[in-house]
Amino acid sequence: MKLIPGHLTLAQLADIAAGQARLELDDWSAVDASAARVATAAAGDAPVYGVNTGFGKLASTRIAKDQLAALQLNLIRSHAVGVGAPMSPDVVRLMLATKAASLARGYSGVRGVVVQSLLDAFNAGFIPYVPAQGSVGASGDLAPLAHLTLALMGEGEALVKGQRMPARGELDRLGLAPLTLAAKEGLALINGTQASTALALHALLRFEGLFATALASGAMTLDAARGSDGPFDARIHAVRGQPGQIEVAAVYRELLAGSAIRASHREGDERVQDPYCLRCQPQVMGAALDQARHAAQVLIREANAVTDNPLVFDDTMISGGNFHAEPVAFAADNLALAIAEVGAIAERRIAMLIDPGISRLPPFLTADAGLHSGFMIAHVTAAALASENKSLAHPASVDSLPTSANQEDHVSMATFAARRLHAMIDNTAHIVAIELLAAAQGIDFLRPLQSSAPVEALHTRLRADCASMPADHYLAPDIERAAALVQAGVLKAPGAPGFGG
C-alpha cells in the first residue's frame, strides 16, 4: 500500500489494523525539508520548545547543544510509565501506521530514518508492548507512544505471540536496526493522538460488523414474534428524512421480504401495534448508524492529522495544541451511546420474546415451562450486560484532571473514552448472540412455517454451531459460540450499510 500522508481511508485503516498491508512511502521531500529546519534550529542559540528546552512545566529550562540527543532519550525513558494489559496487535499496528503517516506530512521535523523505522517495524510484524492505561488524551498520548518508541529503540518490550519479550531480541530476530533519536524526534514520536485514535478506530471497525449483525437479529426476532413489517414502509421514513433511519428500514424490508411467517398472520391479527423494540428498530438503529458515521468522519480526519507539537512550517516553528484529543473523545463518547443503544434495544427484544403475553410464544421459549427454564436466565445475562453498558456509556470527555503542575490544565480523557468502547462491544456482542439464540428458538416453534430467505439462511448458519433447545441444556457454550459468530461477522445482515469510505 502506498502511504499517501493525509489521505488514508477507512478501508485502508481496516487493512492496516488487520495486518493485511505493506506500507511504502514514495515522496520524502517534505520529511527531509522539515528535518533540515529542525537541524538548523538545534544548531542555533534561540530557545525552541522541545528542541533545546525541557518539556511541559520545564519548557523554560535550556538544554546544552551536546545534550540534545540525551534529552530525547531521557524523554522516552521517563514517559514510558503505562500500566495495565497491553493494547492489541490491531491497535498497535494502527498506532505505527498513523504515526508514520503523520510524521511523513513534513511538519514534525524528524529525519526520514524515523518514519522508515516505523514503516519497517509495521511491515516486519513487530508489535511493541504498549500498556493500555496511562494517558489522559492531551499533551499527546505520551505514555503509550513512549512505550511504542522505546521498543523501536530496543530498550522496551515487544508482544510476541501474546507474550511480553525484550524488544531488542525481537528487533534482532526480524533484522530491524534499533532507532537512535536526534533533536525533537522523541517529542514528535510521543506527542500526538495516535493511541486514542487507534483505539477508537479499532472499536469503530469492530462495531461496524456488530451493527450489521444486530440488524439481522432484530429481523429474526420480529418474525419469531410474528410482528408487522408495516413500520418499515419506506413512506414512513421518507417523511422524517433521517438518512440512517431510511437506510436501515430498507435493510429490514429486504431481510423480511417473502416470509411465510409474516404472510400467515397478515390477516386476522388482533394486535394493532407492536412494542417499540420491534416497531422502532429503524429509528433506533438508524440513529446509531448516523452517530457511527459521524464518528468515522472525525476519526478518519484524525488518523490523517498532524498532532504533535511544536510544528515546523516554512519559516518558523510554532507551539500549539493539536495533541489535545477532544475530537477523539467526543467521537468515542458518541460511539459509546450508539453501542449501548444497540445492546439496549436487543435486550428488550429478548425480554419480549420470553414473555408469552407479548410474543405469543411458550413462556421463556421452552415447551414445558416449569420443568424447564429455557431462556429465563440467558435474558438475565443480557440484562446485566446492557446495564453495564449504561455505566460505561457515561461520557469520558466531561472529565478533566490537571497534570504537569497545572501546565496541562485541561485534558480530554480520550484514551479511556476509546478504550472502554471495546468492553462495550464485547458486552453488546453477547447480548446480540443471546437474541439470535432466542429468536432462532422462536422460529423453531413456528415450524413448518418458513421465514424469509435471508433470515432462514442466518438461522441455518447459527444452527450449524448452536443446536435448538427443546429441553434445558448447558447454554453458556452456545452463547459463546454464537458470540464468536457475531464477533467474526458471520451472521451480518446482507446489504447492511457501512460506516464510511
Task: Give structural notes.
The structure is a single chain. A hairpin with a 4-residue loop joins strand 5 and strand 6 (317-318). It contains 20 helices and six strands. The longest helix has 32 residues, at 414-445. Helix 3 (68-79) packs across helix 6. It is elongated and about 90 Å long. The chain has helices spanning 10-17, 29-43, 68-79, 89-103, 112-124, 142-152, 167-174, 185-190, 194-224, 234-238, 243-256, 260-264, 276-279, 281-303, 326-353, 356-359, 376-392, 414-445, 453-465, 476-488, and strands at 83-86, 131-133, 157-160, 163-166, 311-312, 317-318. The protein has 501 residues and is mainly alpha-helical. The chain has two domains: 10-192, Orthogonal Bundle (Fumarase C, Chain B, domain 1), CATH 1.10.275; 200-265 and 274-311 and 336-399 and 408-488, Fumarase/aspartase (Central domain) (Fumarase C, Chain A, domain 2, Up-down Bundle). 55% of the residues lie in helices and 4% in strands.
